[in-house]
C-alpha cells in the first residue's frame, strides 16, 4: 500500500512540476508517459470539480422525469413527456436554454457550481497546449500537426493517434529524447 501511495505522490509531483516549470514551454520534448499522465490527472481534477453541478443536474432531471417542477426554483417546463415529445420541435430547440435556466435560475445559489471547474479548465489551457506541442515534437512533428484536429469527423481521431505514436529515438530538431 505504501508503494502505491509513493507512486501516486510521484505522479502528482510530475504533474505539478509540469505546471510550475513548463507552463507555457512550447519548445523541447515530452514523452508519451508524461503526456498521458498529465492528461489523466488534469482530466480527473476537472471532473471532480464538475461533480457538484452534475449532482444538481441529475436531481433536476429526476424531478422532470417524475413530472414535477425542479426544486431549484427555475423555469417551469412541465413533465419530461412534454419536453421530450417528438412533436415539440420548439421544446427540442430550447432544451439547452431550458436546462441552463433550470440548473442556474437567476438569483439561485447554484450558479457558482461550475465556477471552480471553469477556472481550473481555463488555467490548464496553456499548459495543456504546450505539453501537446512538446509531445508532437517528441514524435518528430511540428506544432502545425495540431491543425489535423480541425478536420471534420476524422481529425480528432487522427490527432489522438499522433499523440500515441512512439518517441523518436535519440536527438531530433527539438532536442534530446526524454524519459
Describe the 3D structure:
The chain is 60% helix and 2% strand. The chain has 179 residues and is mainly alpha-helical. The protein has one domain. Strands 1-2 form a two-stranded antiparallel ribbon. A hairpin with a 2-residue loop joins strand 1 (171-172) and strand 2. It is globular.
Topology:
Layout: H1 2-21, H2 32-65, H3 80-84, H4 89-103, H5 115-138, H6 155-164, E1 171-172, E2 175-176
Antiparallel strand pairs: 1-2
Helix pairs in contact: 1-2, 2-5
Structural class by secondary-structure content: mainly alpha
Distance between the termini: 26 Å
Query: What's the helix count?
Result: 6
SSE pattern: HHHHHHEE
Any key phrases for this structure?
mainly alpha, 6 helices
In short:
Helices cover 60% and strands 2% of the residues. It has helices at 2-21, 32-65, 80-84, 89-103, 115-138, 155-164, and strands at residues 171-172, 175-176. Strand 1 (171-172) and strand 2 form a beta hairpin.
